[in-house]
Automatic annotation (TrEMBL):
GO terms for cellular component: neuron projection; plasma membrane. This is Lachesin. Transmembrane segments: none annotated. Residues 59-148, 159-256 form the Ig-like domain. It is found in: Cell membrane. The keyword Repeat applies. It comes from Habropoda laboriosa. It comes from the Eukaryota. PROSITE patterns: IG_LIKE. Keywords: Cell membrane, Disulfide bond, Glycoprotein, Immunoglobulin domain, Membrane, Repeat, Signal. Its main location: membrane.
Amino acid sequence: MAYGLLYGMASRDIVLCFFLTVFLYSSFEDLFHWQTNGAISYPVTIFPQTGHMKVVIPPDIMNSNDSADLLAVKENSNLRLRCVATGTPKPVVTWRREDRKNITLWTENGVQRVESYEGEQLHLKSIKRQEMGSYLCIASNGVPPTVSKRYYVNVQFKPLITVSDQLVAAPANSDVVLRCYVESWPKALNTWYRHGGIKLLSDQKYVLTELPVNDYAYHLNLTIRRLNRNDFGNYTCSVENLLGKAEGTIRLQELHLTRTTSTPSRHNTEFIDKHGTKKQMDRKGKHHVFEWDGGSSVKNGGNTGHATSVLRRNSSNALTDVSVKKSKVSSYPAPAPAPAHFAPTQLNVQNSVTSLRQHSRLNCVELMFAFVAIVMTIGSV
């Protein structure tokens, strides 16, 4: 059978089997140090290779007995958060606030506010309501994935009410909103009372709402619709929890709306013309003539029988001459002196100077005509 097996093999396969047999024989002889006739044969030296394998384990957070997911503590007391993580290599534990606010730490150098803190234990001393919220314990060692655990801290305190507008005024037949700012934890029971201790409930007349500000603060609003006289008075917002009670009072009074109408005032313009007559022009364009007569002032409504020249202000605020009925006064009289009780104005002086200039011009013209007449008379002679 062996002969048949060898006969069926090719010469190439026979050669390969021979060399494989020789190699195995030499290897076993070197490994077990074969001995012949009490003497050790000369083995062929081989070099062994050593491999090192490093095992890594991703981080994990253990559940400790003194730590829970939801913690409650009274304000101004101390709180310790503990987070134990396992893994290879040893994980690094980092604390952060979920709302990205700073963590308040009490150290030897005083109070410090940091964005993050490293360590398995986080100590919060004299904790305040502003520190309420979620704290994250994050464990990482370079081997993914990074793991985290959330601790929610509740800070309990007595309710607090702040009323910014203690006096509110609104007209009748309108709607008004009364507001109270509340801070409380645990959540308080909210109640509104009107004058006389009457408890208010939400209906078509009153609407009670809450608008949250953060985890422990909110606005407590009361909307009163269609105000009437019976609605005006004092209103009280009241909140109460397990630690205490707080109240705030708002006074609602009626706002009386008055309508005011403005009448245009009449502005009169007074001036003195070249004849020394005091005149007045109102905004409607009606002229009033004032004449000085022996120091006494006489007012004429513009309907006089005298013909004189009146100065009127046009749209450009300039004085122009207009014609009225002929006056009995001489054409160019000397300007009448102003009464003692009337202080001369700059306009009076200007009018007087203008009258003198016009009178001088007329005298010059008369002299010229007289001179020409004399010359012509002499020439004819």
